[in-house]
Each structure stands twice: as C-alpha cells, then as structure tokens.
Design brief:
The complex is a heterodimer of chains A (about 260) and B (about 220).
Chain A (H helix, E strand, L loop, with lengths): L2 H12 L8 H8 L6 H16 L41 H23 L7 H4 L4 E7 L2 E5 L6 E6 L4 E8 L8 E7 L5 E4 L6 E2 L5 E6 L9 E10 L8 H5 L5 E9 L2
Parallel strand pairs in A: 3-10
Antiparallel strand pairs in A: 1-4, 2-3, 4-8, 5-6, 5-9, 7-8, 9-10
Chain B lengths: L2 H10 L4 H26 L7 H21 L13 H16 L1 H4 L10 H4 L5 H9 L3 H11 L2 H12 L4 H8 L3 H21 L21
Helix pairs in contact in B: 1-2, 2-3, 2-4, 3-4, 4-8, 10-11
Classes of the chains: A alpha+beta (about 260), B mainly alpha (about 220).
C-alpha cells in the first residue's frame, strides 16, 4: 500500500526546486545572494531581541515530540501558523500586547504560588534517591584524590579534552535517569547545561557520561565546578537558579581545571 | 561530521550569547537556502519580496532553534551520523511548512477519509494525477508540517535514500520491526494527505478546512 506514492514523493524530494529555469526558481535563487554584514547582523540581533523578550517562533506546535514511531497515534492538529510579515513592518497590536501582559502576569502568579508551596516529591523513588559518588573520572591529569586507590574528584584537562565520568548510587536506582550539569565558572557564575551526549545508565542507576569539557559547561580556561545532577528526566531543574537548591535529584561535584 | 560544529553547538548550549551568536551566523545560510527551497515547493503567492520572505522565515527558524532553552537544537545527535547542516535543514522544512500551512491550505482538516481508501492497494492512479497536477510538492510541504524531525530523518532514509530497513534500524537505534511499522504508518498517512490534493478522490477544495481525518490504526 502506498509504494508508488512514496517512491514519487521520495524522488520529488531529491529534486532541487531552486535549480529550475522558471522565473519563480530564478527569483528565489536570487533571494539567496549573500547578505551584507549589516543585513545579517540586523536579522540576528532582532532574533535575539525576540528570544530575550520571550517570544516564540511562528510554526511551533504542541506535538513537537509526537513522531510516528510512537504507537498508532495520529499526528495532532497543526499549529496555527502566524503570518509572515516584513521585519520592518512588524507591529504588535494592542490586543496582542494585552494578552501577552496578562499571560505574563498569570505565569508570574503561578510561579509565585508554586514557590510558596513547600516542595513535596510525589514519586517515592524520587524522594529516596540515594547519594551518588564518583567511581571513575578520566580525561585529564588527576589533581585531587581522597585516597590513592580512589578516583579523582578534580582533574586538569586540555580545552578540547573529553571527560569520562562514572557516578554510582549508594543503593540501586531504577532508570530512566538523566543528567544536567550546573557549571560554576571561575568568576562564580553558574549556568545550567544539558549535555548533548546521552549518558549511559545501567539497570541499577550507575551513570556514565562521556562529553567534551565544553559540552559540560567548562567552556573557557580556568577552574570550574561541575555539579552533575542525576535524577528522573522530568524532575531535573530547568534553570541554574533552580539547580542551586535542593531537589529530587542527586548531586555530585567535580572540579575541572581547563588549561589555557 | 564536523567536530567544530559539535563544539560550537555545545558551547552555544551553555547559554553564552556570543557563542549563540556565532552559531546563528554559522547556520544562517543553510537556513536561508532551505527556506527558499520550501517556498519554491509551496509555490508561494507572487506579490511579495522573495528576499524579505526568505529573511523573515529564516528568522523564525533561528528563533525556533534557540527558544525554550534551545530545545530544538538539543535534539541534534551527531552520533546518528547526521551533520548539523542536515539536521537544521530538517528543522527548517518542518517549521516553514507549518508557517506556510495557512497559505497552502490545511489538508489535515478536510473531509473524513474512508478507511477503505487508506488501505487501497493501488495508488498509481492517485500518484499519476498528483504528478500531472504538479501537486507532489504540495503533498511534501503538508507532510513536512506534520512530521517531527525524527519522522523526517526516517523519511529521508527510507523513502529518499531507500536504505534497507535493517540499515535504517541501526542508524536510528530502532528495531527493524519498528522501522517497518513506521513505514506502514507513514504510507497510510501520506496517502491520506495526498488524497486531499486530488480532485478525484477529494470531493472538496483542499484549502477549505473542515474536519480532521482519522489516521488511526
């Protein structure tokens, strides 16, 4: 069923529509002439201004995570697409501004209420997450060990080094588990990093993470404290501030000095 | 596979603005080109400045990559063998297809489709009619609007590169049975979409939203 159609669609996707000699293709190909520096800078500046303002891009959907590999679920309704308007002509209506302000106030109120409510983990496993310790740490020169036979808790690495760290719970923990890193830089600034490398997790909750120092947050020379926060994926903090305090996760700190 | 890209993305994900900015500049050309490709496929209406269209849509794609703590960007997994440019092209296709959804109609919301039609064995006449009407691109745009990046990756491997399902399974860290199940669902889904663009099988105007078809089971 559908083989002919899928063959045709696959073949169509292999065709570069900009390579045609029709006027529309030529017009679009012309639109790709290099931007001058100012034009490109304006576009990127405007994008970051919108990012900082908390704007969401047009075309985002609530079904971003629902792919057809999961069960028989039908694709969800399409998101309502925002009309594309010229950057120079972009204007927010008063109604939109009112809605945004009202939504922001509601969100702030919700955050305030949540912060006032004592945190009570609902999952017994989360509540009982045991202490984690470093069992292996490689990738650089050991600087600090508790005992000669112990793994180091501080290492010095080259800027392009890959750090290989294994942390284990004092008692077995059931997966799924994920890791985020609270990286505290030489100047004391903390950032929260989600490593792009997926950690390997054993059935008993031992976690191995192999990632470049930069991917773990140690992005420049100096001494960094990398706090690995291990826990069920949906319980991990989303911001560096949230990661600062206690939570339903285990925290293991290691010191990484990135050589200049 | 460029380890420079991996490093650049990793450093941008730490939230440092100057590194994010470098990444944005690095990705801009790739995004602009794919935006133009999607506009060409969607046969966007005349009367607008195509350069401005490309710039506006490129900005939406860039914002989509960085918003929500760069959730979209974090989906890039170089271990799967897909380069950063290739990943960003998939993201661009999906995002632009969704934005263009209003212009090319909403085939997902048309008449309910008879399940018998979806299971029909012979789709050659339908395919020929779509080819003759040059509607295959419209079907692709509509499909891209609904596929996740993972669906798009699978689509490329299975239907564009026509790899063996076992190879696809290895590349995508799936079982072969899961790849086959996905292929079946995608065929069914694509047919349901294609029907909306076919005047013979679709009774109404494909740009007129009515009711969502059932794609289940």
């Amino acid at each position: 069923m559908g083989d002919e159609l899928m063959r045709a669609l696959g073949q169509q996707l292999r065709i570069d529509p900009l390579a045609g000699d029709d006027p529309a293709s030529a017009e679009l190909a012309d639109a790709l002439l290099p931007l001058d520096e100012d034009e490109e800078a304006r576009l990127v500046d405007e994008m970051f201004r919108r990012l900082d303002a908390g704007e969401l891009a047009a075309g985002a959907g609530d079904d971003d995570d629902d792919d057809l590999t999961e069960g028989e679920a039908a694709p969800a309704e399409p998101a309502h697409a925002a009309p594309v308007v010229s950057l120079a002509e972009r204007r927010r209506s008063r109604v939109t501004a009112f809605v945004v302000v009202a939504a922001s106030l509601a969100a702030a109120l919700l955050v305030w209420l949540v912060m006032r409510t004592p945190q009570r983990p609902t999952d017994p496993q989360v509540a009982e997450l045991p202490e984690y310790v470093i069992t292996e740490l490689h990738g650089g020169t050991a600087k600090v060990r508790a005992a000669p036979q112990d793994p180091p808790s501080a290492i010095e690495v080259a800027s392009d080094a890959t750090i290989d760290v294994v942390v284990a719970p004092r008692s077995p923990v059931r997966p799924p588990l994920a890791v985020v890193v609270r990286a505290v830089g030489p100047d004391g600034t903390a950032t929260l990093v989600r490593p792009t490398e997926t950690p390997k997790v054993s059935a008993e909750g031992v976690v191995r993470l192999q990632a470049p120092a930069a991917s773990l947050g140690a992005t420049s020379p100096g001494t960094w404290e990398l706090q690995l926060l291990v826990g069920p994926p949906d319980t991990l903090p989303a911001t560096a501030k949230a990661a600062d305090g206690r939570g339903p996760w285990a925290r293991v700190a290691l010191q990484v000095t990135v050589a200049p | 596979m460029s380890t420079d890209d991996e490093t650049l993305v990793a450093s941008a994900l730490t939230g440092h603005r100057d590194r994010q900015r470098r990444l944005a500049h690095r990705l801009l050309h790739c995004i602009r080109r794919e935006v133009a490709v999607m506009l060409a496929r969607a046969a966007r209406p005349h009367g607008r400045d195509p350069r401005q269209d490309v710039l506006d849509l490129s900005q939406e794609v860039l914002l989509g990559l960085f918003e929500r703590d760069a959730r979209e960007l974090r989906r890039w997994d170089p271990a799967r063998g897909r380069s950063l440019d290739s990943f960003v092209r998939l993201v661009t296709r999906r995002r632009v297809a969704r934005i263009l959804g209003q212009r090319v109609g909403n085939p997902w919301a048309d008449d309910p489709t008879d399940p018998v039609d979806l299971d029909a064995d012979d789709d050659e006449p339908l395919t020929r009619r779509l080819e003759n009407r040059q509607e295959l691109d419209s079907v692709l745009v509509a499909l891209h609007a609904k596929m996740t990046v993972r669906d798009q990756e699978l689509f490329e491997l299975v239907f564009v590169e026509e790899l063996d399902p076992a190879d696809v399974a290895t590349r995508m860290d799936m079982t072969r049975a899961a790849v086959n199940a996905w292929s079946y669902r995608m065929r069914k889904f694509a047919r349901a979409v294609a029907i909306q663009f076919d005047p013979v099988e679709s009774s109404g105007d494909p740009t007129t939203p009515k009711e969502k078809p059932s794609h289940g089971g």
